[in-house]
Amino acid sequence: MKLAHDIVIAPVITEKSLMGVPEKRYTFKVAKDSTKVEIAKAVEEIFGVKVEKVNTISMKGRFKRMGRYEGYKPDWKKAIVKLSEDSKTIEFFEGMA
Question: For the chain, what are the domain ranges?
């Protein structure tokens, strides 16, 4: 059994992800093997909110170079979580939007 903090790894803070905050749409980096149901339960448990919908995207690792050495960053999974209308907001994102 995975814990909620093992599923939701970190928030994704970009200009595009912060544009969804007024519509109660939040973006998180999540464990690669987690499902939409597990992500929804983990977000509800961590932040005490009500999740309406979860969209997931598998992100390919970016190509990086350090001098003559080159390689790829690891692949990761992104989840866009939509909260229900009657749910409270997530305070962490409030000062950023």
Answer: 4-85
Q: How far apart are CA 42 and CA 92, in angstroms?
A: 16
pLDDT exceeds cutoff 70 at 26: yes
In single-letter form, the type of residue at position 6 comes to D
Q: Is the pTM of this model over 0.85?
A: yes
> DSSP code of 62?
P
What residues form DSSP beta bridges with 78? 29, 57
Q: Is the dihedral of CA 45, 49, 51, 56 positive or negative?
A: negative
What pLDDT does residue 97 have? 61
Dist. CA 29–CA 56, nearest whole Å: 10
Six token digits for residue 54:
């979860």
User: Which CATH class, in words, describes the domain spanning 4-85?
Assistant: alpha beta
β-bridge mates for residue 53, sequence order: 82
